[in-house]
């Protein structure tokens, strides 16, 4: 099941929810079903990039180590 970002029309809360086929999300704060699915930001740390490898993030480099590496194009 995919995780989606939502914003509640009733109270303004933003939240994430696992939503299966045919299911509706409910606000995690007020319980309302009046929610709008939002465009989700892509993952940042430890997410496999198309074509292999890891994307750089706060805790890892592009080669996946916690310390800088010499791989071409790797952010240090």
Kindly describe this structure.
A hairpin with a 5-residue loop joins strand 1 (3-8) and strand 2 (14-18). This protein has strands spanning 3-8, 14-18, 35-38. It has a 3-stranded antiparallel beta sheet, with no helix packed on it. It has no helices and 3 strands. The model is unreliable at 44-58 (pLDDT under 50). The radius of gyration is 18 Å and the shape is elongated. The chain folds into 2 domains: 3-38, no CATH class; 44-71, no CATH class. It is 0% helix and 20% strand. The protein has 76 residues and is mainly beta.
Keywords:
76 residues, mainly beta, 2 domains, 3 strands, elongated
List the helices and strands and how they pair.
Blueprint: E1 3-8, E2 14-18, E3 35-38
Q: Average pLDDT across residues?
A: 73
Beta-strand percent range: 15-25%
With strands numbered from the N-terminus, the spatial order across the biggest sheet is 2-1-3
Total domains: 2
Low-confidence stretches: 44-58
Distance between the termini: 35 Å
Q: In this structure, how is the largest beta sheet organized?
A: 3 strands, antiparallel
Which series of helices and strands comes N to C? EEE
Q: Radius of gyration in whole Å, from Cα?
A: 18 Å
The amount of helix comes to: under 10%
For the secondary structure, the number of strands is 3
């Amino acid at each position: 099941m995919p995780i989606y970002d939502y914003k509640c029309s009733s109270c303004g809360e933003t939240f994430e929810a696992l939503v299966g086929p045919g299911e509706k999300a409910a606000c995690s704060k007020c319980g309302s079903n009046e929610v709008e699915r939002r465009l989700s930001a892509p993952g940042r740390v430890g997410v496999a990039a198309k074509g292999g490898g890891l994307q750089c993030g706060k805790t890892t480099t592009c080669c996946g180590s916690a310390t800088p590496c010499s791989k071409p194009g790797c952010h240090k």
